[in-house]
Amino acid sequence: MNKKGFFGNWGGAYIPEILFQTFQELNHEFEVCKKDSSFWQEYIDLMSTYSCRPTPLTHATNLSRYFGGAQIYIKREDLNHTGAHKANNVMGQGLLIKRMGKKRVIAETGAGQHGMATATMAAKFGFDCTIYMGEEDVLRQRPNVFWMEKMGATVIPVTDGSRTLKDAINEAFRDWVTNVDNTHYALGTVCGPHPFPEMVAWFQSIIGMEAHEQILKQHGRMPARVYACVGGGSNAIGVFKRFIEEPDVELIGVEAGGHGLETGEHAARLCGTGASPGVAQGYKTMFLQDDDGQMLNTHSVAAGLDYVGVSPILTDLWEQGRVRFEAATDKEVMAALDLTMKKEGLIPALESSHAFVQAFKEAPLLSGDDAIIINMSGRGDKDIFTIAHAFNDPSWKEFIIDRAREYSR
Ligand SMILES: *Cc1c(COP(=O)(O)O)cnc(C)c1O
């Protein structure tokens, strides 16, 4: 990364003048923290007493036997508090906010997972908390909105544009511009203007640091391949970062193939042909956009992968050929999830199941001495409505109708 926050040709900080000083302050604070080993220790202590770090690396013996190839290991980010790797980022930023003496935190959220994690962090640290969420997403993700409000956060439905994630991001920036003095914007992934990509990657790198140590201990050597799903890219960079220095470890990012790349209904930015370079939301990357630079509508069964941009760090690693990108369709995702539940008793999130799809395609081609790691970014309980619907479970449908009747009495 060079001085202005670029990773190769990607990244940067395209910010309005009014935020200049805030970013300077944030950059300064982050630089100080990076050099201060006691800050990292404070972070580790917090994550091991409030979340569930180190998360285990599980040897999936049944799946390994089933595919008859590589030994499959699963990094269990689902065991974090709030059920996903997102806790790593928000708790880290919480410590940073405390140091900067700010009292209010805002965040954007699409599926509600980052909003949930931020509301949790705000409650724990005693910050005021406002979450921006597209009106469409508020309707779709009622359970998350319920919990955020119960934890004391204010959830503001955004009625602009397509009323989804990108509109929520714009609204959060608007709020920040007006309230810079007391407010920190806790961005949810490794995107946005510098220093966010680097900072979020730094906190998330704890995943790969643990996995590196665990695989050596449990398997005796480096894995052949590491798989992660890619929305904004934070769980992927988190698990990849420590392994980038290991030249023999192949890194594979799996994007949302949706209904199939040929349908245009997907969120495949780096493995498809639909994305082009652009600058939006404060940074430069490959965006799914039309010839006029208008963002395209994306689709995925996994709400957390449904995003038009992608981390500048990953775009750089893609350009260098260090990370290979693949896509998994909605249909493949349901099949991989089904198999993982039956064989291992694990329920990966729909997002994480994308990584499982690609790993399952490749595991049989490797030898039994090889190990592969799948990053299970989160747990699937949150997806029960979508999963039950996709499996077309008749008794679930009955249950929902019964509940609705009961409530309307
Ligand atoms: C939010 C989310 C993702 C996508 O975000 P990244 O920044 O790409 O990691 C993936 N998995 C789960 C479980 C999520 O909640």
TrEMBL record:
Q: Which family does it belong to?
A: Belongs to the TrpB family.
Q: Where is the Tryptophan synthase beta chain-like PALP domain?
A: 52-378
Q: Which UniProt keywords apply?
A: Amino-acid biosynthesis, Aromatic amino acid biosynthesis, Lyase, Pyridoxal phosphate, Tryptophan biosynthesis
Q: Which Pfam families match?
A: PALP
Q: Which NCBIfam families match?
A: trpB (TIGR00263)
**Presence of the UniProt keyword Hydrolase in the record:** no
* Residues carrying N6-(pyridoxal phosphate)lysine: K86
Organism of origin: Candidatus Desulfatifera sulfidica
Report the InterPro entries cross-referenced here: Trp_synth_b_CS, Trp_synth_beta, Trp_synth_beta/beta-like, TrpB-like_PALP, TrpB-like_PALP_sf
Instruction: Indicate the quaternary assembly.
Output: Tetramer of two alpha and two beta chains.
Listed name of the protein: Tryptophan synthase beta chain
Q: What this chain does, per the record?
A: The beta subunit is responsible for the synthesis of L-tryptophan from indole and L-serine.
Gene designation per UniProt = trpB
Involved pathway(s):
Amino-acid biosynthesis; L-tryptophan biosynthesis; L-tryptophan from chorismate: step 5/5
Q: Which reaction does it catalyse?
A: (1S,2R)-1-C-(indol-3-yl)glycerol 3-phosphate + L-serine = D-glyceraldehyde 3-phosphate + L-tryptophan + H2O
Supply the CDD domains for this chain. Answer: Trp-synth_B (cd06446)
What cofactor does this one take? pyridoxal 5'-phosphate
Could you state a single Gene Ontology molecular function term? tryptophan synthase activity
Q: Kindly report, in one word, the top-level EC class recorded for this enzyme.
A: lyase
| Gene Ontology CC, one term | cytoplasm
EC number in record: 4.2.1.20
